[in-house]
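Review form for a predicted model. The reviewer records the input and the model, then writes brief findings.
Reviewer: anonymous (R2)
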Amino acid sequence: MDLGGETGHSSFQNSTPTREGKPAMKILAVDDDPFFLEILEAMLDTGGFNDVTSAVSAQQAAQIVSSAAQPFDCAFIDLRMPEIEGDYLCRWLRRLPEYHDASIVMLTASGKKEDVQRAFMSGASDYITKPVDATELLSRARQIALAGGGSGARSGAMADGAGAADQRAPTYFDPIQIEGVKRSVKLDALANYVAQLSRSSENKLSVVTFHMREGAELHRRCSPEAFTRVLAATARAILAHARLPHPFIAYCGSGVFLIVSDAAAISTEQRDAIETAINAELSAQALADDAGRAIDVTVMMMESHRLGGRNEQQNVTAMYRAIENAEQETLSIRLGLVSG
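Model under review:
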């Protein structure tokens, strides 16, 4: 099995969600230290999560995943392992359709920014530093369970035709995973990234939003597949011309993109130049809808803000506030209350 190649936390819950009287999640734990795996399993068991399968290497984990009758709902993976490291395993899992949306939590003794960035670039949903605190671990596990895990039994049920009612096309307001764009992540994963780096005062971050003026009209005109292609093209253009240090980008819904990067000051003149370059590239791409009609995409870049909160919750809140401000600006432009 080839594993190489590229292709806001909720509050602690007092009860564990169950599925038909059984623990709500099927969990895969991967670490090259068997003793740590025993501790991890014991911690999870105290919270009612006793359906845990352990592997001591990425290779063994790949064999377990390939032979599993049902996909795992969640995986806890050690970032640093001999031979094949955890980020490669994470990338391999993300290439499997049943693990496209699964919750993958990276575990490591390192809290260095470079390792956190490496984990999220590989497709991790979240990140926990060792030594693992039992309360934090169970809080994350319960949060994942309450959100439905991400794959597991739900994917199997949908493959059989059950649960089809839950499969709906995303609305204009929904966050969407941007496919095929390097450094793109889900919005909730981006919030986890901000939370993790905010634990050290040495990590300085900035946020900046961009919005498509025609987003609502494009969503109405295009199929979901065509709309996601437009999002991918727009995200690539934004990343190419914003040129921010160590950026991650997410589509937040309502035509709004968010970049979180290392702290960077952007002047009004620079912002205007970036915006002009993005729109010139999108115009040159000659994007089209499903009927072959030309699509005009105009991106507006909002003011950049530095995340200066005293703790992770303040910075995550500030991140979401930036998104809300961009959504309000978009709505005001659509209503004709301000000029675009």
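Findings: Residues 312-334 form the longest helix (23 residues).
Further findings: The mean pLDDT is 86.
Recommendation: see findings above.
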